[in-house]
């Protein structure tokens, strides 16, 4: 097992700061949303669809998370609209802001 662990290679060594995004592949942004618990973040992704974004997972529905997304939407996401949400599973840290995105 240890030999396999040593073989793991990560395409990006430094995670994005809160409110920022890192391009991990052409048109795919990695975003970390903080969580108020021991597991202190959730990884979410934005896929550039040309004139809009697809967001994969959303983070918890908190004022802090909404403020982070507002910063992301006007900053790294360039003001383009979010047209599609994909949730990987139904935990609140992955689907929590789906309603907020729907009403925006």
List keywords for this structure.
104 residues; alpha+beta; Metallo-beta-lactamase, Chain A; five-stranded mixed β-sheet; 4 helices; 5 strands; globular
Strand arrangement in the largest pleated sheet: 1-2-3-4-5
CATH top level is Alpha Beta
Mean pLDDT: 93
The CATH superfamily name is Ribonuclease Z/Hydroxyacylglutathione hydrolase-like
**What's the helical proportion of residues?**
25-40%
Large-scale geometry: globular
Structural class by secondary-structure content: alpha+beta
CATH architecture: 4-Layer Sandwich
- CATH topology assignment: Metallo-beta-lactamase, Chain A
Say how many strands there are: 5
Work out the radius of gyration: 14 Å
Unreliable stretches covering 5 or more consecutive residues: none
N- and C-termini, Cα separation: 46 Å
Q: How many structural domains? A: 1
Taken in chain order, the helices and strands follow as HEEEEHEHH
Question: What fraction of the residues are assigned to beta strands by DSSP?
Answer: 25-35%
Main β-sheet description: 5 strands, mixed
Number of helices: 4
Task: Explain what you see.
This protein is an alpha+beta fold. It has one domain: 4-Layer Sandwich (Metallo-beta-lactamase, Chain A), CATH 3.60.15. Helix content is 27%, strand content 27%. The protein contains 4 helices and 5 strands, in the order αββββαβαα. The protein has helices at residues 2-7, 63-74, 92-95, 98-103, and strands at 22-25, 28-34, 41-48, 53-56, 82-86. It has a 5-stranded mixed β-sheet, with no helix packed on it. Strand 1 (22-25) and strand 2 (28-34) form a beta hairpin. The relative contact order is 0.17. The mean pLDDT is 93.
């Amino acid at each position: 097992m240890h030999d396999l662990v040593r073989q793991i290679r990560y395409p990006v060594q430094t995670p994005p700061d809160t409110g920022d995004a890192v391009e991990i592949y052409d048109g795919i942004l990695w975003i970390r949303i903080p969580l108020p618990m021991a597991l202190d973040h959730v990884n979410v992704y934005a896929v550039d669809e040309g004139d809009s974004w697809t967001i994969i997972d959303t983070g918890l529905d908190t004022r802090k998370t909404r403020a982070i997304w507002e910063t992301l939407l006007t900053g790294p996401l360039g003001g383009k609209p979010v047209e599609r949400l994909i949730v990987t599973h139904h935990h609140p840290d992955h689907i929590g802001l789906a309603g907020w995105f729907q009403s925006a």
